[in-house]
């Protein structure tokens, strides 16, 4: 086998330079800066074969997050695999909105004159996948109890490993939306969800990373909004009056999600935009 330097391997793999560096860094167990400063070093045959096999997978379209087995979200590294959706930067808007609601809640509790000790906020992530939303909330909010559900056992196992990796306690329940929860669970103060919201006939399902992601985490029925209807319809049973319900949704679903929430039990409904200026997250307060 001919000898190949780091620089040559990066050049010859037909991948975008950043992705090639991430994959080669993964094989060698080094970071990008190390690669840049050692680019004349020669790869062993084993390293070269390993790198070529990862590059082939990437060239065949497999998401880089699944190949590396990790993705960063809210400054934390999450394990990902094909049983969970890859966390997206857009979803950080949902987490930040949840954190600011929790912050406001604890400020108003400390301002109130009640002598009762402040009750920790009870937070729920419906359809948690890798656990990115629930675990980020638990990590950045000290005084809350976090619960999460998913219909997929493989996803829940991944989420439980991620919770352990970040040293946070999240209680996980298996099942579809609210059905996962035992009836005596008690009322929540904040419920967040990034449910499947792509229309079944959306052409994007056959492009890019989503081809490799679990369909059950992506497709929300023929009009893409089944999950919002299901979740809103039972929100009053599981949420306190004054609690916040917040969803991520598709760029063109702000209006329909506001309508579903308005017909449900929500008021003070607001939509927040993503960095591209599209409607992305809608929240409301339970009446
Ligand atoms: N935002 C994802 C995408 O467009 C979809 C996530 C979801 O359905 N919840 O690829």
UniProtKB/TrEMBL annotation:
Residue span(s) of domain Methyltransferase small: 121-202
Gene3D superfamilies per the UniProt record, alphabetical: DNA helicase RuvA subunit, C-terminal domain, Vaccinia Virus protein VP39
Annotated residues for binding of substrate: 194-197
Binding of S-adenosyl-L-methionine, residues: 127-131, 150, 177, 194
Pfam families for the chain: MTS, PrmC_N
Biological process according to GO: methylation
Residue stretches making up the Release factor glutamine methyltransferase N-terminal domain: 7-69
One GO molecular-function entry: peptide chain release factor N(5)-glutamine methyltransferase activity
Highest taxon of the lineage: Bacteria
Assigned keywords, A-Z: Methyltransferase, S-adenosyl-L-methionine, Transferase
UniProt enzyme class: transferase
Its EC number(s): 2.1.1.297
Catalytic activities: L-glutaminyl-[peptide chain release factor] + S-adenosyl-L-methionine = N(5)-methyl-L-glutaminyl-[peptide chain release factor] + S-adenosyl-L-homocysteine + H(+)
Similarity remark: Belongs to the protein N5-glutamine methyltransferase family. PrmC subfamily.
Function of the protein: Methylates the class 1 translation termination release factors RF1/PrfA and RF2/PrfB on the glutamine residue of the universally conserved GGQ motif.
PANTHER family referenced in this protein's UniProt entry, alphabetically: HEMK METHYLTRANSFERASE (PTHR18895), MTRF1L RELEASE FACTOR GLUTAMINE METHYLTRANSFERASE (PTHR18895:SF74)
Name of this protein: Release factor glutamine methyltransferase
Gene label: prmC
